[in-house]
Structures are given as C-alpha cells and as structure tokens.
Amino acid sequence: MHATIIQEFKKHIQLTVEEEALITASFRYKKVRRNQVLVQPPDIALYEHFVISGCLVEYYLDDNGTQHTLSFAPQGWWMTDLRSFLMKQESRYFVETVEDSELLIVTREQYDELLRKIPLLNNYFRILYQNAIIGQEERLLNVLSTKVDERYLRFLKKYPQLENRLPQYLIASYLGVTPEFFSRVKSKISR
Amino acid sequence: MHATIIQEFKKHIQLTVEEEALITASFRYKKVRRNQVLVQPPDIALYEHFVISGCLVEYYLDDNGTQHTLSFAPQGWWMTDLRSFLMKQESRYFVETVEDSELLIVTREQYDELLRKIPLLNNYFRILYQNAIIGQEERLLNVLSTKVDERYLRFLKKYPQLENRLPQYLIASYLGVTPEFFSRVKSKISR
DNA sequence: GCATTTTCTTAAACTAGATCAATTTTCTTT
DNA sequence: AAAGAAAATTGATCTAGTTTAAGAAAATGC
C-alpha cells in the first residue's frame, strides 16, 4: 500500500529500512470516491495528499462562481493548498477528487517530524519543489504567450492519459477559457 | 559584501562561523551595469544569481519577437533559468539586469558542494522554493481570473518599490498585455 | 547641448474569447 | 430501461485586448 510512496522518495534519496517504516507509519491510507471535497476554503488544509491512484484537482472559485483550475494531480503526484498547509492559514483553493482515488495523507505535524527525523527528506522536497517551479513557469508562459488551440495541443502532449479521464469543462478551465469556447476550439481542430 | 546573503540564509536556518566562511568563499561578487544579458538562450545558465542591489528580469522571447516577462528579482531575490541551471540543459529564458546591479553568483558545482557540505541548506532552499510555488500559483491565478486593470492594481500593491524603476513596457509584458493597451489602462485608471 | 534612439500615447480597425440562451448528448440513478 | 441531471454543442451578440500606424515625450549617446 505504501510501496508507491517509498519508491517515489527513492527516486531522489536513499532510505534505511527504519526510515521506510517511519514513513509508512506516518502516512495514512485513504480511499475516496470521485467528486469529494478534500480541502474546502476557508478551512485550513489539514493534509498533504500523495496520489496512489485516481486524480485530484486544485481550483479557485472566484466571486462570479467561475472555477479556475490550477493543476491536476494524477498518480505519483502531491497535492494540497500548499500555503494553507504550510502556514496554517485559511485555504483559498479547493482540492477535490475527479475520480475514485487512493491517497496517502500526512498532517503538518507528521510532515515536520518526518523532516526532522529524516533530514534527507529536505533534499527530496527541495528537488520536488524545484521541478514544480519549472513546470509552473512553463504553464504561466503558455497562458501568456499562446492561443487556446496551441495550449490544448500542448496539454494533450503533456497529459495524454488525462484527456479521457477529465470532464471537458475542467480542461477548459485549466486552459483558461469557457467550456463553450473550448468546445468550438476542439471541433475546429478535429476538422 | 556577503553580509546580505548570510542574513538571507539565517532567515530560515542557523549557520556556524565556518559555514558562513564557506558560503562567502563560494559566492562571487559581481557588479553589472543595466541592460546586460546574464543568461542568453540557448546558452546553459552557468550561475544562480542572488541580488544584493538593483533588479533582474527573466523573460521569454517568442517566435514573433514578443517578450513575455516571467518574473522580476529585486534586492534579496534569487534568479536564473532554473531548469537550465539545474539540469544543464539549454536555457529558454533570458535573464537581464534592468538596473545597475550588485550580484552574488554561484556555479552549479559550487552550489552542489555547498548543499553537500552544509546539509541544512537543503532546508533553506526547500522553504525558498515552497514560497516561490505559492507566489507563482497566485500569479497564474491572477492571469487566469482577472482583467488587466485589476492585475495592475495588485502589481502595484505587491511591488510598490518597482513601479518607478521599471520601463512601462516591461510591466505590460509582466501583466500579459501589449504596451499600447497597458498605456490605455493606466490613463483610464488615473481618471 | 543637439541628435538619435527608445519609450509612451492615441486612434481606428480587427479578433480571440466571453456571455447568454436554447438544444442535444451523455452520464447517473433508480 | 426510463427519468432526471449534468455536460457538451451551436448560434447570436458583445467586449477585452491586439494590431498597425503615426506622433509626442523621454532617455541616451556623442
């Protein structure tokens, strides 16, 4: 059950058997069915979620009720409202399951304790966050510099697995356009 | 000269005198006048830059020759083409001075060695990158969910010092609009 | 201090994408 | 399998932001 997350850590750092046991003991397994809210603003995000299977989405709900998708977390990804989780401030972003999902979750206290007991984890998370920054820069740039049709094609290339698992309005929201306009873009592209 | 960067590290971690000396020895002081290119695609980004004074900008130049600003780095900030610096791949973003600037720079080898010799630095950089992610999420959200006038007002609030130090076309590029349109927005707001 | 380049402004025509509204298709639930 | 709800399509109209162009203002170099 915890094998995937141990594998994930081992991508970047080495772990002793004791450390693996400690990690296993700290992460709680949680099975959640689709469309469940995991973080609901303004509640404080209590957990960092690691996705074993399924998919999560993080989005902002603006004053008009429009949903703006920040990111998706398929298998092997982490997700939470990071600012809320780390600083124990009110969350601003929803986190939800878009499919039945299996998660490993950890509280802030457990997270701190793990970093204290296994200092190498700082190394793992440093690298994880570095990569997240690089990915985010690219995403921002896409929004700033390209039209929707181009953005959609890049999305398809980057997440070929996700295309058929996500409702279309969520992809539209991720690309930063209305479902109506996205529908037109798709039909134009397919012709 | 290296006092600022030591102070910066000490915001998040403790350092011994020896460690401070090691850091001082690893970062090279560099004075650069304005409008100098520090990273030029597709050259590999050789340094991570810490800004003592002045200001840097990171931007992407698209195929039409349009400049898309990803971020600014005033005093106390770090900047480089992170992907290029870390993975030794071809850079994609320009890094330039927008003012005469004083920098402390470190090569990839020195950076790795520092992290090896002072493991706590992993902790510092983990926190630094966490905060960068939180900031970037916010920026992405602004672009996705608000109109330019609103974005501009938020920019003013967030970087009151920068407003008068940057040419207007750079701010426009940061906000994701043309200089022409930005000029209109400004005059509309001031009335 | 004058000339040249760069930046900023204003205006008119244009386009990517939004909004509103109605219809069809697909997914859920029983 | 039927009914209801949610998601996707299509069309008409509207708007935020672009493009092109030309002139005015600032900044820079000599």
From TrEMBL, chains A, B:
SUPFAM superfamilies associated with the record: cAMP-binding domain-like (SSF51206)
Signal peptide range in chain numbering: none
Gene3D superfamilies linked to this entry: Jelly Rolls (2.60.120.10)
Domain Cyclic nucleotide-binding intervals: 30-116
InterPro entries (alphabetical): cNMP-bd_dom (IPR000595), cNMP-bd_dom_sf (IPR018490), RmlC-like_jellyroll (IPR014710)
Name of the protein this chain belongs to: Crp/Fnr family transcriptional regulator
Source species of the chain: Chitinophaga agrisoli
